[in-house]
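Lecture 7, part B: from sequences to assemblies.

Below are the input chains for today's worked example.
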Amino acid sequence: MGRFVGHGELGASWLLEVSKDTLKRDPGMKKVCIIGTGQTEVGEHWDKSILHLAHEAVTSALLDAHVESVDALFVGNMLSGALSGQENLAAAVADFSGLRNIEAIKTEAACASGAAALRMGYTAVASGLHDRVLVLGVEKMTNTLGHDTTAALGMAADAVYETFQGVSFTALNALMMQRYVWQYDVPDTGLAGFSINAHRNGCHNPHAMFRHAITEEDYSRSRVISSPLCVLDSSPICDGAAAVVLCAAGSSSLSDGSRYVAPVTILGSAAATDTLAVHDRSDPLRLAAVELSTQQALAQAGAGLDNVDFLELHDAFSILGAMSLEAVGYAEPGTGWRYAMDGYIDIEGDLPVSTQGGLKSRGHPVGATGVYQAVEAVKQLQGLAGPNQVPNAALGMIQNIGGSGASVYTHILGI
Amino acid sequence: MGRFVGHGELGASWLLEVSKDTLKRDPGMKKVCIIGTGQTEVGEHWDKSILHLAHEAVTSALLDAHVESVDALFVGNMLSGALSGQENLAAAVADFSGLRNIEAIKTEAACASGAAALRMGYTAVASGLHDRVLVLGVEKMTNTLGHDTTAALGMAADAVYETFQGVSFTALNALMMQRYVWQYDVPDTGLAGFSINAHRNGCHNPHAMFRHAITEEDYSRSRVISSPLCVLDSSPICDGAAAVVLCAAGSSSLSDGSRYVAPVTILGSAAATDTLAVHDRSDPLRLAAVELSTQQALAQAGAGLDNVDFLELHDAFSILGAMSLEAVGYAEPGTGWRYAMDGYIDIEGDLPVSTQGGLKSRGHPVGATGVYQAVEAVKQLQGLAGPNQVPNAALGMIQNIGGSGASVYTHILGI
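Predicted structure of the full complex, as structure tokens:
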């Protein structure tokens, strides 16, 4: 299948106008590098609290960066209050991890909380406010205080017009999938490609929750959760934590001769929002905030879709994989699902997607996911992605979505 | 009483070492101004949801700044999940307030969530990432979903070692007060001065929840909640929202000739943390993060304690007023309570405190408080504080505490 790049062919009316102002990158801003990463295995960690998970990722990242301290800690998390009874989480993590007295702050943007923390950390370093910071994403969703995790996740949607009416977050995605399948005449297993690809890649990721391959037949026999969405369309409820250490290019943190891999640079960082409720959108199948943040991040990086070597997209449900491919600009509306069926998104394909298993197979500890994506992109760019290595990966795009498209963060990483 | 300034006289060992690195302000950082403010009345808003409150403050601030749009929205909030069933709050506010598609992020640092949002907004503008942003603090604590507000507030403390053992957040403050009163031999109504001062000032603040004066006799007859802490030591559970518009000095937002008041500048911004649990501190009566963030903010502003014309401190409980005066550096350990009894903290005193009623009288809608403090400081600096005007106010310090001293943000505002 030929590669479709850019919305230009769809006519300008389908495009959001990107304000020129928002594309400016102030010349005074510093270049920001990722010099260390850490991650826990994703899964059901019944023996670990949210603070134990956080500590594990923090320690790994500091070790990997060859540093012992940071100036500030940014923590992405959505549900520590609802499921662990703990707010003031960033101070709690700083205390528990031995980073006492440093600035520490929690960011929340539903399932995009991790990328929100990455963006705040990026801003703090780019501004010159801090020289070196730690960004953590962490979520503890299993073996919790007895609260209902599904209900807690519903808080990502519009409380008054969606959740209180009885729709779960999964059901909202099922409604979007129902509409998509109907509008574009998608066959029964039409969206299977995203999950099959994710599981194939997850097999080789030692941090992934599901390390087994699935087939189209498995998908077709998978139990329906909310018609037409089935178990194998859905990312799992799980625990996990991931962390990255950021510093300014030119910082003394980078001059340590013992470092053996090259730092990765954050070339683009952008955020956008959309209506919280799906029914408020002029087109329920259009992820406007994905479009907007993609365009801004690419413009900041001075790159085009053709330059992107791999894409970590937000495949919390397979329908989001298809809609993301369309909103990012790789596929025309209604055709995203086809790309997953034709090898296009394989490691060896034109645009490798979910290269370490994505949300579906690696797992989706919601507030941690955005930072897992960053960790995985760094591994790809450093050539350390093992069996899942994308050949000659030099530029990666990672995208984290909060709610059913309401909060979107796009980052471009390069080496 | 003479004015005690600085910890120097207490000996260096009582001081935290302030890293020189953290005091650096990168020369590339832009000067950040506050060009508009908005606030709702604080109280029990049974007829307004959290989004209605947010919208009211956002609209007022935009009107006051004479602007219609901003590049990004930073929302300080602690309990929207627990009490309104709504996370992804920043996207929700952007949507509900007609600021569709802009970057929007929620920050959480317990009761210091508002100041955390202010600091993130400050960083975004100082870095050059955005030209103009809106910072909102909002909390809806009354007439909620039926959840227990007291239990929700307990999430600011250490879940495992404090809250799960049965201690409420009020009881934690009562324990600190008990220790303080015992250690420093404070008389029964020794801490009354903070509440009396706050209520006296709140009388003239049209946005304050409690607009009546109280006497020492009222205080002495006040019902004990958790010995020795009584009702009149405590800030109320309430609803409210406050907002400020920030822009870079030199921005075109500032050149509008229709503006009739001078912008206020954020001269210093600092954040620090301490152990989450009180029992983990070497001295339970020492607010180490207050010390640290005060020193950093003053150093950044190039100012000393003598230059501060008024202080909005975090008087969620009167004991915190005394401990804050000591940690900031105006009073020696164990003497802070005396300063509130001698006119020192009056509007006409050496160091006016809680000039619009503070948390005790204006009210403490937790995640909104830090932004209320900023709004009130701006009014003081612009000479618009009415009967509570501090004569010739040119430099103000505002300080917001999350948990029992775990997350502290200090900002210095000047004109």
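Note for the exam: The longest helix of chain A spans residues 50-65. Keep this in mind when comparing with the next example.
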